[in-house]
Amino acid sequence: MLPDSNSSLSAEVSEFLLNCFVRSPKWQLWLSLPLSLLFLLAMGANATLLITIWLEESLHEPMYYLLSLLSLLDMVLCLTVIPKVLAIFWFDLRSISFSACFLQMFIMNNFLPMESCTFLAMAYDRYVAICKPLHYPSIITDQFVAKAIVFILIRNTFLTAPIPILSAWLHYCGKNIIENCICANLSVSKLSCDKVALNKIYQLIVAWTLLGSDLILIFLSYTFILRAVLRLKAKGAAGKALSTCGSHFILILFFSTILLVFVFTHMAKKKVSPDIPVLLNVLHHVIPAALNPIVYGVRTQEIKQGIWKLLRRGR
């Protein structure tokens, strides 16, 4: 039996209830269709990209390994968040166990910075390819990708793991209703009977350190790329490079901007509807996942050719 939100402070919480747009039931109806379509697009496009890179030997190169990592991160983030949100919309399955809630929190806090760090590695790959093309084969190697992946895993796991651990260690003794569609750290920890200042401060420092440093380095990489592109004298070379890198940078900017908008709307929650930050938080786990394989994959000529080869083999 679920613990009642008005139960005495001695009652330990074993499950939470996700209040997902309960104040705006029409949002659930209107959001369920585009959200399910975006989820199917994200899963289908990323799965196609992974299968194509895996089966097509010509794509067994460092750049495509990084793209595969990005697709894997997108799929895990989507599967962690969106099915539960749709289950709430369609079947009113709002309960989530204590352990499942903190597992979801761990994956979200860990994989989002991993995705940001992967964007950084891909930006560096493009920087070397355009600014130092003669040194590209000796710099961007399989060993470089392996080291980059190990760095991404260790850096983000080491720094973000304390967030769900600190939250899970708190004493939950009464309220169990999370005013969110997902187990976001701040939404969960404020239900605790303990002081949560350390939890909030640590998340804020880690978020700005990881995502902020990644964004600055990505911006510097594309600044150098832009400067090098403008010097290209080969006919059409500058335009092609700008088209490719421009779409990549816009996607990275979108990834970062939606996070910043979420932070600011959360800070100004008295001036905006409380459903707005919740909506942004949900969309941030599916829109980039749906756009990444299209911008990074389908717009790449080698990926297109690989997909067509696989389709012809299937026929």
Could you describe the 3D structure shown?
The protein is an all-alpha fold and 315 residues long. It has one domain: Rhodopsin 7-helix transmembrane proteins (Rhopdopsin 7-helix transmembrane proteins). Helices cover 73% and strands 3% of the residues. Strands 2-1-3 form a 3-stranded mixed beta sheet. The model is unreliable at 1-10 (pLDDT under 50).
Summarize this, please?
Residues 45-296 form the G-protein coupled receptors family 1 profile domain. Putative odorant or sperm cell receptor. The protein is an all-alpha fold and 315 residues long.
Task: Sketch the major β-sheet.
Answer: 3 strands, mixed
- Our count of helices gives 12
Name of the top-level CATH class = Mainly Alpha
Classify the oligomer. single chain
β-strand amount: under 5%
GO biological process, one term: cellular response to lipid
GO molecular function, one term: G protein-coupled receptor activity
Transmembrane segments: 27-51, 63-82, 205-226, 246-264
Membrane topology: Multi-pass membrane protein
List the helices and strands and how they pair.
Blueprint: E1 15-18, H1 25-55, H2 62-91, E2 95-97, H3 98-131, H4 136-139, H5 142-160, H6 162-169, E3 177-178, H7 185-189, H8 197-230, H9 237-267, H10 275-283, H11 287-298, H12 301-314
Parallel strand pairs: 1-3
Antiparallel strand pairs: 1-2
What attributes characterize this protein structure?
transducer; 315 residues; G-protein coupled receptors family 1 profile domain-containing protein; 3-stranded mixed β-sheet; mainly alpha; membrane; Rhopdopsin 7-helix transmembrane proteins; disordered N terminus; G protein-coupled receptor activity; transmembrane helix
